[in-house]
UniProtKB/TrEMBL annotation:
<feature type="domain" description="Reverse transcriptase RNase H-like">
    <location>
        <begin position="2"/>
        <end position="86"/>
    </location>
</feature>
<protein>
    <recommendedName>
        <fullName>Reverse transcriptase RNase H-like domain-containing protein</fullName>
    </recommendedName>
</protein>
<dbReference type="GO" id="GO:0003964">
    <property type="term" value="F:RNA-directed DNA polymerase activity"/>
</dbReference>
<keyword id="KW-0808">Transferase</keyword>
<dbReference type="InterPro" id="IPR041373">
    <property type="entry name" value="RT_RNaseH"/>
</dbReference>
<keyword id="KW-0255">Endonuclease</keyword>
<keyword id="KW-0540">Nuclease</keyword>
<dbReference type="GO" id="GO:0004519">
    <property type="term" value="F:endonuclease activity"/>
</dbReference>
<dbReference type="InterPro" id="IPR043502">
    <property type="entry name" value="DNA/RNA_pol_sf"/>
</dbReference>
<dbReference type="GO" id="GO:0016787">
    <property type="term" value="F:hydrolase activity"/>
</dbReference>
<keyword id="KW-0378">Hydrolase</keyword>
<keyword id="KW-0695">RNA-directed DNA polymerase</keyword>
<keyword id="KW-0548">Nucleotidyltransferase</keyword>
<dbReference type="Pfam" id="PF17917">
    <property type="entry name" value="RT_RNaseH"/>
</dbReference>
Length: 189
């Protein structure tokens, strides 16, 4: 369940067993200055995104039903120019939005009206930097040590000196998948 008010958003993570709903987690957040300027429908979408990000580890890969008191969210999900970053975050989930009036959605409604003091973190409305998706082609310095410890094979391109150095250096390392540990003086790892 998600809801918004003029200054805050609220969400409830719940689970249905039969006809009964069981609450797992309550969450709310005060909106920052930029988010205060959103239209009501965009604030409702922001509440859904907030809930999906907050409960991401529980919701990914499962059918998610969101109860909201704003019918226009269905339209906003198909509108191409409405907060593209928020729409992109929602599309990671198998999501179904169901209308639930404010009277039936009391807990989320109350959480959204509850003003929480303290700092709020602004949502950046720009997409991620392309540099974050850059893949490095350089091989890390420890790759040959790990390969030697796992396979006991030395690359055929190594010189006699490099082979001796690899054997000498690898004595101080232990490979415990996925970690490479180094023995230091006093057998500290």
């Amino acid at each position: 369940m998600c809801d918004e008010s003029n200054s805050a958003i609220g969400a409830v993570l719940g689970q249905k067993e039969g006809k009964a709903s069981h609450v797992i987690y309550y969450s709310s957040k005060t909106l920052d200055n930029a988010q205060d300027n959103y239209f009501t429908t965009e604030k409702e979408l922001l509440a859904i995104v907030f809930a999906l990000e907050k409960f991401r580890q529980y919701l990914l890969g499962k059918k998610v039903i969101v109860y909201s008191d704003h019918v226009a969210l269905e339209y906003l999900m198909t509108k191409k120019d409405a907060k593209p970053k928020l729409i992109l975050l929602v599309h990671d989930f198998d999501l179904e939005i169901k209308d639930k009036s404010g009277v039936e959605n009391l807990v989320a409604n109350h959480l959204s009206c509850f003003h929480v003091g303290g700092s709020s973190f602004p949502i950046l409305d720009k997409l991620l930097d392309d540099r974050l998706f850059y893949i490095s082609n350089t091989i890390p310095w420890y790759a040959t040590i790990v390969n030697f410890l796992v396979t006991k094979e030395i690359p055929y391109t190594f010189t006699k000196y490099q082979k001796a150095k690899l054997k000498s250096d690898s004595k101080y390392y232990v490979w415990d998948d996925p970690y490479l540990w180094k023995h230091c003086p006093g057998q500290l790892i």
